[in-house]
Amino acid sequence: MQEKKQDQWASKLGFILSSAGAAIGLGAIWKFPYMTGMNGGGAFFLLFIAFTVIIGLPILIAEFIIGRGAQKEAVTAYKVLSPKSNWSFIGKWGVAGAFLLMSFYCVVGGWVLTYSVLSIPGLIIKEGADYPALFETITGSPLITLIGFALFLLINVVVVSFGIKDGIEKSSKILMPLLFIFFIILVIRSLTFEGAMEGLRFFLQPDFSKLNASNVLYALGQSFFSLAVGISVMVTYSSYLRKDVSLPMSAASVSVMNIFVSLLAGLAIFPVVFAFGLEPAEGPGLLFIVLPEAFAQMPFGEVFLSLFLLLFLFAVLTSSFSMLEIITSAFTENKNRSRKKVAALAGILVFIAGIPAALSSSNLADFKIFGLTVFDASDFLVSNIMLPGGCLFIAIFIGYKMEHAVMQKEFSYGNHLSPSVYKVWFQLMRWLVPVTIIVVFLGSLGLF
C-alpha cells in the first residue's frame, strides 16, 4: 500500500470543482465558441458532446485511476505502478506539455486580465470605438503584453504555492460557483435580444450537411483540449484524493460540468452575435473583438462585458493553476524542497519561455517556424501532438500494462457500479480510445 500523501483534498466537492476548473478554461469558453462557429454550429456541438462522453470521459477516469492508484504525482505515479520500466516517460511528457502549454496559455491569460482591468472603469466600450484596433493595440504592445503575462503568472504562483487545501481548493470553491452565476446572468441577458432565436437555431439545431471529415476531427480534438486530458494534470490532482470517493462518478461530474459550461458559452455568445448581425465564424477574435462590439449595443453593455471577462478570467486561472501544480508537484514530491520556492522558480522559467510567444504579435511577428508564429507553433505542438500523444500513451498503459487488480479496485472504491461497467470502460480504453486517437492524430497532421 502506498504511503498516504501529506497534502489531500479536504472534500469531494473541492476535488470535483478543482478538477472541473482544470478542464474549463480557454478550451470551453474561448476555443469552443469560435470552433463551433467555424465548424457547423449545432452539428459540431452534438459531435463534441458525443466524443466527450465516449472518448474523453474514459481517458479522464484512466488518469484519475493512475493518480489515486499510485498516490503520487504524474512522473512518480508510473514508476510506482510499473516499476523497473520506462513508463514514467508519460509523466515527463505531461510535465513538458504543461510547461509548454503554460508558456502561451498565460499569454492569453494576460490578455484577459488586461481586458478585465480596462473594462471595470469602462475603458473598452466607447462611442465610435474600433475593437479590432484595440485588440491589435493590446496584443501588439510588448509592454502591455508582458506586464499582463507577468501579473497573470504571479497570481498562479501565489495560489499554487499555498498547496491543495489552502490554495487551489479554496480558490476553486469560490471561483467555480461564481463562474456559473456570471454565465447564467449573461445567458438570460443574451436571450432577451430580438433575433436571438436565430443564434439558438445555429447553435442547437444540427445541420449535418455542413460537416466534413475535418469538422469531425476538430470536434474530437476539442473534447481532448477542453477536458485537459493527455498531460497527466488529472493524474496529479487525483493523487491527492481519498479512497472513499468514486472516480467514475467524479469524472462524470467533471465531464458534465465541462459540457454544461460549453453549452452556456454558446447560449451566451451566439444569440448576441446573430442578434446584431455579426459573424459567428470570426475565429479566435470572437471573444476579444466581436463581443465588445455586441455588448456596446446593449443597455449597460460595459457592465455585462465586465461580468463576462471576469468569469473568463476565473476559468482561465483555474485551468492554469492545474498546469503549474503538475510542474510544482513533480519537483517537490519526495524531495526536501519548498513548494513556494519551486512554484516561484517554475513561474519565472515559464515567463522566460513564454516571452517569444508573448511577442509574436509585436517584435517577433515576422519570425516564423514552419510558417507559424512562435505562439501558433506552440499551440500546434501542444494541441495536435502532445495532447493526443499523451492520451494515446495513457490508453496503451491502461489497456496493456497496468495491473487489472489495481484498476478494478480504484474503479470500484466509493460506488456500487456493476462490474460490467468496469468491463465496458476497460474495453473502450483498450480498443476504441487508442484507435480513435490515432485517427485524430494523423488527421491533425494532414496525413489523410
UniProtKB/TrEMBL annotation:
Record membrane topology: Multi-pass membrane protein
UniProt keywords, alphabetically: Membrane, Symport, Transmembrane, Transmembrane helix, Transport
Any matching Pfam family: SNF
Subcellular location: Membrane
Transmembrane segment boundaries: 12-30, 42-66, 87-113, 143-162, 174-196, 216-235, 256-278, 298-321, 342-360, 380-400, 428-447
Keyword Transmembrane: yes
Presence of the UniProt keyword Transmembrane helix in the record: yes
Family: Belongs to the sodium:neurotransmitter symporter (SNF) (TC 2.A.22) family.
NCBIfam families (alphabetical): Na_transp
UniProt protein name: Transporter
Natural source organism: Virgibacillus halodenitrificans
Organism lineage string: Bacteria, Bacillati, Bacillota, Bacilli, Bacillales
